[in-house]
Structure formats: structure tokens, C-alpha cells
């Protein structure tokens, strides 16, 4: 299976980086072809501009967007790995969605409503956050994050969300807890794809 991982964390030594490495190793061990798009290392420009929109309407997709759209189009599975910042996606990943999952590429308006152009792909989201998971669960944030990402992004364009892992209390746990998280990542990618 061709697997695209879109990764958004600026620090090499982060738990997110360990999650990325664990996911890549587990997928490759099963024979998957894995492409990682590390948005910070790429210096991805996240701001959707008027020029971008005008170019796409004219059928001339800017080169950086076209490059990412090719990776998305070629993938059978797409995983997003990112921290939750201010209850949402880091700006660089939000901008990736804004620019890459564009009208005409990821969806269009049809007679029956929105036509999902990425149907047939599987998706996984893996998040970390500093707030304890129990708090996010109690206030409805966990459910809210799943709705906005799994449904609001993936399902909107036809990607089937196979799972969404949210790891809380990051920065406040013992080593064994982080190891258990990485094992859960390994098991999830090994069984869902």
C-alpha cells in the first residue's frame, strides 16, 4: 500500500518525531511504501493567497501545491501526525489543508451537493496534547477534535478515517507511558492498514 504521512512538528526530539519514526518503521516492516512530507523541514508555505486561488481557477496550480497534490493523489492511505495547539492544527498543517485539499482537487460542488474526490483512501490522525486526556474527554474536546478533523477534513473529501489517536498529558508522564503510546501507534498502523 502507498502510504503518505503528513507530519507537522518543528522539534527533532519531540514525541511526535518518535511517533513518526515508529509509524514509518511499522508500515515499512509490513511492506508498505511510505512517503513522509515533513512540513517544517520542507519550509511549506501555509498561507493561501489570492494569487494561489486565481492560478487554480485558471487551471494553473502553483508548483508547490501541485507537488503535494500528487503525493495525496498517489497515496492509498494518508496519516496526519501533529500536536494539538490551541485546540487545533498547527498553522502549517491548517495551511496545507487549505492549499492542498483545494476545490477541484479534493472536492467539487455537484448537482447532488459536494462530490468527494479523494474517495477510496484511508486516513489516520495521531495527535498529542499537554492537557490530560480525561479533561479533554470531560469537556467534549476529544469528541470535538475528532469531528473537526475526521469528518470536517477527511470525510469531507472522501477519505475514510480508520482511527484517531489522541495522547494527552505530554510532558508530564513517565517513560513507560510514552513507550506504551509508541506501542499503540505501532499496533494501530499494523492493524488498520
UniProtKB/TrEMBL annotation:
EC number assigned by the record: 1.6.5.2
One of the record's GO cellular component terms: cytosol
Enzyme class of the recorded protein, top EC level: oxidoreductase
Gene Ontology terms for molecular function: NAD(P)H dehydrogenase (quinone) activity
Alphabetized Pfam families for the sequence: Flavodoxin_2
Superkingdom of the organism of origin: Bacteria
Keywords from the UniProt entry: Oxidoreductase
Chain ranges of the Flavodoxin-like fold domain: 1-187
Family classification: Belongs to the NAD(P)H dehydrogenase (quinone) family.
Protein name (Swiss-Prot/TrEMBL): NAD(P)H dehydrogenase (Quinone)
Organism for this UniProt entry: Paenibacillus amylolyticus
Amino acid at each position: 500500500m502507498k502510504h503518505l504521512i503528513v507530519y507537522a512538528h518543528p522539534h527533532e526530539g519531540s514525541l511526535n518525531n518518535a511517533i513518526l519514526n515508529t509509524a514509518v518503521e511499522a508500515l515499512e516492516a509490513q511492506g508498505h511504501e511510505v512517503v513522509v512530507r515533513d512540513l517544517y523541514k520542507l519550509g511549506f508555505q501555509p498561507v493561501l493567497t489570492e494569487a494561489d486561488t486565481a492560478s487554480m481557477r485558471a487551471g494553473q496550480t502553483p508548483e508547490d501545491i501541485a507537488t503535494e497534490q500528487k503525493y495525496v493523489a498517489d497515496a492509498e492511505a494518508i496519516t496526519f501526525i501533529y500536536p494539538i495547539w490551541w485546540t487545533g492544527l498547527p498553522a502549517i498543517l491548517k495551511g496545507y489543508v487549505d492549499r492542498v485539499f483545494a476545490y477541484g482537487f479534493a472536492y467539487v460542488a455537484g448537482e447532488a451537493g459536494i462530490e468527494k474526490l479523494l474517495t477510496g483512501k484511508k486516513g489516520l490522525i495521531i495527535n498529542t496534547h499537554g492537557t490530560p486526556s480525561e479533561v479533554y474527554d470531560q469537556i467534549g474536546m476529544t469528541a470535538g477534535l475528532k469531528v473537526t478533523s475526521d469528518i470536517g477534513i477527511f470525510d469531507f473529501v472522501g477519505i475514510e478515517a480508520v482511527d484517531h489517536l489522541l495522547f494527552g498529558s505530554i510532558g508530564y508522564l513517565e517513560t513507560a507511558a510514552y513507550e506504551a503510546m509508541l506501542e499503540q501507534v505501532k499496533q494501530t498502523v499494523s492493524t488498520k492498514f
